[in-house]
Amino acid sequence: xxxxxxxxxxxxxxxxxxxxxxxxxxxxxxxxxxxxxxxxxxxxxxxxxxxxxxxxxxxxxxxxxxxxxxxxxxxxxxxxxxxxxxxxxxxxxxxxxxxxxxxxxxxxxxxxxxxxxxxxxxxxxxxxxxxxxxxxxxxxxxxxxxxxxxxxxxxxxxxxxxxxxxxxxxxxxxxxxxxxxxxxxxxxxxxxxxxxxxxxxxxxxxxxxxxxxxxxxxxxxxxxxxxxxxxxxxxxxxxxxxx
Length: 243
Prior knowledge:
The protein is an alpha/beta fold. The chain has two domains: about 5-70, no CATH class; about 80-225, Rossmann fold. It is about 35% helix and about 20% strand. It has seven helices and eleven strands. Strands 8-7-6-9-10-11 form a six-stranded parallel beta sheet, sandwiched between helices. It has a three-stranded antiparallel beta sheet with strand order 1-5-4, covered by helices on one side. A two-stranded antiparallel ribbon has the order 2-3. Helix 2 crosses helix 7 (about 210-225) and helix 3 packs parallel to helix 4 (about 150-160). The chain is globular, with a radius of gyration of 20 Å. The two termini are about 20 Å apart.
């Protein structure tokens, strides 16, 4: 805790989330405040954001006398790996970086996978997608977006991706393409419980037309999947605004 209301910075500490999601410590000012701080700190730690300050009300709300919370973490930002060096990938890289992801664009075609085409990506890799995925580091926060739309890339890549403990696996394509892709994956021996994890056609129904709108649709689905959201409008819905 850095500051409480108008008081000078204090020395109270909150342990935050331990590995595995457990929470330690508290402020001794009531369970509501501790729960709110844990939720806010957990979101920042998950995003790998260091030194962020969050204003929280004394009773755990976002109003009232504010508490200033300093969050420090050594956790790197979550990864977004975009497979397929297409126009949609350039737009998605921009949105992913805005959301705090470390963005990688991967494609086997060197003529398309260039830093000049993807200036918003943290790295651009020329490699067969499934080989890159098999040799890179991912974790439970990683999101995988397959935009290649080509069976020779999609099938081996998704076969590998659906075996991993990652936050999200999505693939671009029409509903017809999705059904064909599922049939090919079943032929490769991918079990039904793994296929059920595949988000395809990728994204939420926003009526997207442009690459930028499509990127927003994909990003919205990723946020909903990672945060436990429904993706439905909050207007008229008896749902929590913050989770």
